[in-house]
Design goal:
The structure is a homohexamer.
Chain A: E1 12-26, E2 32-40, E3 43-50, H1 54-59, E4 65-75, E5 78-88, H2 107-118, H3 124-136, H4 138-143, H5 157-175, H6 181-190, H7 195-198, E6 199-200, E7 206-207, H8 209-231, H9 238-248, H10 265-288
Parallel strand pairs in A: 3-5
Antiparallel strand pairs in A: 1-2, 1-4, 2-3, 4-5, 6-7
Helix pairs in contact in A: 2-5, 3-6, 3-8, 5-6, 5-10, 6-9, 6-10, 8-9
InterPro entries (chains A, B, C, D, E, F): HD/PDEase_dom, HD_domain, HDIG_dom, NA-bd_OB_tRNA, YhaM_exoribonuc/phosphodiest
Organism (chains A, B, C, D, E, F): Companilactobacillus tucceti DSM 20183
GO molecular function (chains A, B, C, D, E, F): exonuclease activity; nucleic acid binding
């Protein structure tokens, strides 16, 4: 099937894509139109759907997969598609993963893996808090992106990033026996769970009001506090203070938004493997789009460095 | 009455002072002794009380006011007192404010002032949360210092600093009507309340375990969350998110430990008046000890600057 | 009366506005035109006046209020007006404050307020220097903006910002009796007076040559030196050195252009209230243009933060 | 066997220790003495050996294990031992690891492990360079410390740190198949090998002249260049440029002494696991000396943070 | 002869210029074209050469001087030339220096000057290494630019910058006799020689693969190492370590890419005169394009400052 | 003649030295003493002169050269001399330069050199201002140090540093003809002249009140303003604004206390040669005390680097 990237200027396009953005607007000629952005795995292209009824606005909302026919053109220096025909595909038969990036592991498999992982959290308080919060935010956790841009910015990205970190945590705790494996894994499980509340949407990710004003670190701390109260776990216990410290300090530095720097061996390691997994994801994403023997585009989240593909 | 600072090396000392530190230890000769630090408003001097019984350790604990007789000496380059006699004074008749710095306003007067202040918090949710937490930590709030060192580092310092800030807040909100006075005052009341849990002791101030691992900003946020649950106030309401944002952002910058920078006009002002009152307190404290026409000692909390006394 | 912001693309515009910029140029077709920018309180829009004579260039200079008729269009992605008719209004009957932002207090009222303020400067040397310089730069002070962009960037902004700071100074000096009120107010009066020389123009503000090469802090210091010579006040006296230190250090940090950091309690406070008043002005200006429940545009002078309007 | 730390002031000491520093000097009374520092795993203590002959200076040189008898005393505020008797032990029967920290794995075992590791470097050029340089600096590599202070500052520390990093590299390359395992392991093997030339001594580690003027990063780059010439490997090949980039960039940031920041996925990962292994080593070393439920001493290499032992 | 800058929009252009960039592309209408950039000393202008054959692509490659006839137009807000006729000039009769900036001294004169300079390097090892490397990279050294942008970014710029620095070095060494003149001059000669390998092209300068991955500092260090081996000079000698230190540290600060900061008086001076000559070059280049009494454009390499032309 | 550095602990000292500090104090035994510091070119040693009369305090004031006899001892870990006899030498016959560092050029020679230099300042306004201020502060200029610590911290250091910079300025202006030599030299002459007012004393250098509160940059700017008024030179002229800019900007960066960064080619060069001459002086001073083949002590003013003596 042809992809957005395959067409050149002036070409007739005919392909399937998902609607990434959809705004219903009034043109200066008094007519309504939909300002759309189409996306498949190869890239994005905007287009206007003219004389749109309110019904059209409902049919072509964010997340709808469509058959798109039109002509590729340049407008104000940027590519757009002049739409000839637009038809929604049946959402039941569509395989979303053909259009947008998703986690390379199936949701069900990830859910099963986490069930096994919880068994490794051998401390009762930590285990109960983790299970409680994974149950409370189950759906959001397995569908959210891990970030608005930068790393793991796709559906299921949060769960996939968390899973990768747990795998690193297991291996590192095995290599260095002085590390409390249960604490490290509990911290890894919870560290970014506040993003389910900080961000909204999986295709068109935005910050929520709470996300903007409190941040995901404070949000997950609040959730742990409320979970402990619900579960009647003593918040003043060393265990609970340490678990909260793990998530509070996981950005590593005050200037990155952690109100405390790591003061536990496990908290330092948690920060390090968060950086490691996020870096590998960002670099790999950029290299995937790079030709062998060339440098990638500059990566914002990696201090604007370009990486070499060999 | 003579003060610690009045004595020179070799002098016989005879004065009243408060015990600031007290450690019960075993000397290399097998005997027990108390390692003490005496303090009055003029300064401090350490001394050892030899052949101390466990009973002595109980009699001469931190906060006890004593009649001290001994000889001022130099040991390893620093002054100490060789104790001849040490006798506890009757704590009922002693006026503590003669020995240690205290707030220049009486506790009772401060308590009454805060009762009036609460009336200015005209938003129901904020008013109830502030009253609830002031009731919960009433005693600690009126006896705590506002810091281990730096500004308002004395008994009642936390309440006095908070009161000064509220007075600034009232005047500034009156001058700029676009400021939400109730929000600014509610934020000022709560901003440092977490220090009642972050720090312990009023004479010999130390960080608690929670203080070290979570910090006073996260601690007060936890307290607001628990108060809202107790009072059945919706934590997701704009009012509660804004109140929490006020305390979370009051350090102004991420690198000073706030997980979010101010994003409300009132939050920015709260940060500014916190800095203003703390700076005036630190500079004034240093200038009080400086001769007219001279520069003060360098002030650590003011980027090590010396200030001129005119 | 309709405002610039009220018109959409393709609309016929008919409104009154002031000319903010006016450049007389030669087009590639050999004809002259005026490149104009129109402004009212709702915003700005550029437009070209074709076949302009030199006489037109004189009639439509910066500051002229005009009746503007034309069509709103988009050119190279930005709005412009295609002018049909342009007619100057009678400058005698026009109320400028309807077109450009001005201080919310009338100039005469501000002048009277400053007369009262001078009475609070009870030190003879400071009082005479302040009065001398306010007389010397009287007109410029009451018409200048306080900055090219950022805060109080409007006609009379300098006087209004100075007045707000004096009001803060009065209240703070009353709350903290250790502050020398006369010194703080004298410093507040003079702190930005050098901007009358650093900047030129009130509508189309630019840096002067002296402003660019010396900066307003050095310029006001020079003015104080010359005033003292004129008034036969001893420049080596503690009073004069302290007054100069107040203005030299009011940016607070070397990296913000102060050659000395504050070394007087009053100098530290002056810096703090300068920041406070400027911040409140910048945030309020942005929030005025923001819908309730939304975040403002990012504010350059506030480290690019967006603020929430509640 | 009693340790240095077991003795209190005034105690008679009798123990075995290794000589960590030894300086032959002339006292003001015209007599020679040895200024010694004794060390066992519990700590250090200095002492003077009076009336020392040149023969004594030879007998009691750095690295000698001795039977030490004397009295613990305080001199200028610090503990020292007044030596009664000092006798060298037979170096053939002494188990050095009882006196100084050494790698927790035996040298022979490490040597064997590296033989296996080389098999994983499946690129011919890299494999030959690594083998060549490990052969050239074989002894130094297995006896050097990895640093003068901070992390892995003990005999064999360089090899042990390198080995730990290789183990991390293997696991991470297995988890992320996009990583070139051979390149990552080759980089890990060589990254700190220049320290064999940058530092001298294993007990009393100092910077060499080359170390001071060139630094270990430039030194290992030079070694790779010379190795390639010796082995007739093309220095301009992509393989050799990438290998050199791995070691040049492994400090991650210019301000930490890398002349280039990482521009290969493998180079970024190499930097991350260097930080990870060094951090774990530094924190663990500090926690080993800390009581449960207390904070460690502040760790210089970890931005002066104290870590909590749970 | 008319220059690019002399033409206004709509003018017929007729002038001689050099081709600075040349890309052979396929238009959406299926025809081939050359995307060209023309340059003379007054500036640049792009233009498209339509229906270009592969032969045209060879005739109009980078560096060709052409007779250009066409019309100046605006496309997407930027000037371009609509080409009517394009004819290559005879490269044998063309004086390149009329079209592109070149060093103000002729290459032959510079070559002779360097011959004299080598005589001042009175240390045998340094003299031989410098002569060896100047011979090895003779042509590149005298044709390279000293940078991609910023200072001395023209053909021969590297040699001219080096020569200016040597002249400064001579004068400073004469004024301060404690400076080792031979070392300072040897360091100046070699400091940027690695740029002959780091950069490619003289008109359209780009980083090479080695340049990107190793940087010119490491590259010249490698060259010195190889030269010493070739010349059988002891790399461990103080002389060679010092020479390498000179080039390694000449950026002065780690964050500017030097792996070591200067630790020799001569290395500190070398860094200072590098900054001095580069600054004078950048400022002078900007002032050359500035009218008297105006400020220049902002200079990127001078922290974005504008300089005043008097 | 023996020097301070030649004596070891316990030795009888007998030498000539200058008194660097002298404080008259009351001991705890009720007797007066002089707390003295003696200095010769080899170093310093403190000592107490017991039972000192007020007459003794006058005889042994700062700057007196004395015959000192006593015993070298250690007190609280630092060397001191126990004075047996102290006798003032005849100030008329004493050669001060044998005891304290002075400029390596005689004052008279420097005065003559400056007379020649003034001839190079070919701009009338600059020439008159420079001559006026050199006359006004003639004695102070030729006796002051250039700094309290760091570079040129000796009698005549200010004149010597200024002279060195002028020599650099002459050579650089000759090499780069685009530099306005007269402006550069005028700026060099005046740049540090404010230090004659900022600092007091030549042996025991301290900041004055004006120095502390205004800084030497603002002080020299004030002096130029007053000179221009005295000489009836127009302060608003381009010439005077540029001259003031030269001295205002010579620290190069705001964070080093310049209220403006250099915006003239000549101002940038002035800053660079100030850094160059100061660096050479600081490094040379440290290397003078260093053995060949060793590293110097760390130099505070050079970011704490140690330099290698070859």
């Amino acid at each position: 099937m042809p992809k957005i990237i395959d067409y050149k200027n002036g070409d007739q396009m005919s392909l399937e894509a998902v609607i990434k953005k959809s705004d219903y607007r009034l043109a200066k000629n008094g007519k309504n139109f939909l300002s759309l952005v189409f996306e498949d795995k190869s890239g994005q292209i905007p287009g206007k759907f003219w004389d749109a009824s309110e019904d059209d606005a409902r049919r072509f909302k964010v997340g709808t997969v469509v058959q798109l026919d039109g002509k590729r053109d340049i407008y104000q220096g940027k590519p757009q598609v002049i739409i000839n025909h637009l038809g929604p595909l049946d959402s039941n038969t569509v395989d979303m993963s053909q259009f947008i990036q998703t986690a390379p592991i199936k949701r069900l498999d990830m859910e099963n893996e986490f069930e096994d992982i919880f068994l490794e959290i051998t401390n009762g308080a930590w285990n109960r808090v983790v299970r409680y919060l994974f149950k409370k935010y189950h759906d959001q956790f397995f569908t959210s992106a891990a970030a608005k841009v930068n790393h793991h910015d796709f559906q299921g990205g949060l769960a996939y990033h968390t899973l990768s970190m747990v795998h690193l945590a297991e291996k590192i705790a095995d290599q260095y026996p002085q590390i409390d494996k249960a604490l490290l894994i509990a911290g890894a499980c919870l560290h970014d769970l506040g993003k389910t509340i900080e961000l909204s949407g999986t295709l068109d990710v935005e910050y929520t009001f709470e996300g903007n004003m409190l941040g995901h670190i404070t949000i997950i701390d609040e959730e742990i506090v409320k979970a402990a109260q619900e579960l009647k776990i003593d918040l003043d216990s060393e265990d609970m203070v340490m678990l909260r410290h793990m998530v509070l300090s996981h950005h590593g530095f005050l200037e990155y938004g952690s109100p405390e720097r790591p003061k536990l061996l496990e908290a330092e390691v948690l920060h390090d493997i968060d950086v490691l997994d996020a870096s590998i994801n960002m670099i790999s994403k950029a290299l995937d789009k790079t030709e062998k023997g060339k440098f990638s585009e500059r990566i914002f989240g990696m201090d604007n460095r370009a990486f070499y593909k060999h």
